[in-house]
Amino acid sequence: PHPQQPLKNSTKVGICSSVLGEEWTADVVKSIDALVGSCVVLPCTVSHPGTYLSTSRLRGIWHRKDKWEEFFYHDDSTKILDSFKGRTRLLGNLGQNNCTLEIVDVKDHDNGPFCFRIELVRKDTDQPSKEKFSFVEKCADITMIHDKPQLNLSPIKTATQGKPYTLTCSVHHTCPSHPPQIKWNRERKDDNITEVHKHIHSGIWEAESILSFVPEEKDDESELTCTATFSAGIKYEAKFTLNVKRQQNYNHIIIPAVAVTATAVIFGLFCVLMVKKYNMWNRMSRLSLLQK
C-alpha cells in the first residue's frame, strides 16, 4: 500500500523495508470528554520496528481524518489551522514512543476527529522523507462538556468537638499539565491541607484536596466551601454545612461528688479524733478516781 493511504497497520512501506517488514502501530484514545474553556490531553503511543530512533529523526503531526493537509499540530506552526494556532503541542517524546497531544482553551468546534501521522526525517536535510504513516482508523473524538463538572465532598458526617476531622474535595479533569486548583474557604493556622493528583484511566485524572482540622464549638453550623478553578479561570464550588457534636462535660457531676467525698472523709477523720480524745479523757478520769 502507498504510505499516504489510510492504514490501520503500516506494513512493509518505506521505513519498514529495512527492518524485515515489521509494522508501525499507534494507539490513540478513541473518545474523550473535554470542558469548554479548559484543556484536554489526547493520550497517544506509537511503536516502530527495529532499533531506537531519536526524536530528531521523527516528526509527529496531528491532522483531520478526511483532510490530511489540515493540521491541528505541526512542528512548523505556520502550517497549523488558524483556529488551532497557539493552542496545541506535543506533550510526549517521539523517541520514547509518546505522541500525546495537548489542546488548551478548548472550543466548541474542537471535536475532531484528530488523527496522528508520523514521518521519518532525513538526517542530512532535516526534511521529511517519503516514509509517512497516518493512522486514520485510530483517531480521537472529543465530546464537549458545557455543564459544570461534579465536585465531590466526602465523607459527609458529623464532627466531634476537639477530635480530628477530615474532609476531601475531588474533581475529575482531562489536563494533567493544568490541573484545577482546589481551595477551601477556611485555611486556619492549625489546619492541614494535602493535595493529591491521580491518573484514573486513559485521558482522565483526578485532583483531590484533603482538609484536616480539629473542630471547635464555634465551628458548629459553619459552611465549608471548596472551589475548583480550571484553566481559563473557570470556577466551580461545592458547599457543606458542618455539624459539630459537643463533648459531654461531666464537671457538674464530678466536682460535687468529689466535694461530698472529701467532706465525708474530713468528717470521718474528725469523728475518729473525737472518739480517741473522749476515750483518753475517760481513762484519765478513772485513774484519778483510783488514786484518791
From TrEMBL:
<feature type="transmembrane region" description="Helical">
    <location>
        <begin position="253"/>
        <end position="275"/>
    </location>
</feature>
<dbReference type="InterPro" id="IPR013783">
    <property type="entry name" value="Ig-like_fold"/>
</dbReference>
<keyword id="KW-1133">Transmembrane helix</keyword>
<dbReference type="Pfam" id="PF13895">
    <property type="entry name" value="Ig_2"/>
</dbReference>
<dbReference type="InterPro" id="IPR007110">
    <property type="entry name" value="Ig-like_dom"/>
</dbReference>
<dbReference type="InterPro" id="IPR036179">
    <property type="entry name" value="Ig-like_dom_sf"/>
</dbReference>
<keyword id="KW-0472">Membrane</keyword>
<protein>
    <recommendedName>
        <fullName>Ig-like domain-containing protein</fullName>
    </recommendedName>
</protein>
<feature type="domain" description="Ig-like">
    <location>
        <begin position="149"/>
        <end position="241"/>
    </location>
</feature>
<keyword id="KW-0812">Transmembrane</keyword>
<dbReference type="InterPro" id="IPR003599">
    <property type="entry name" value="Ig_sub"/>
</dbReference>
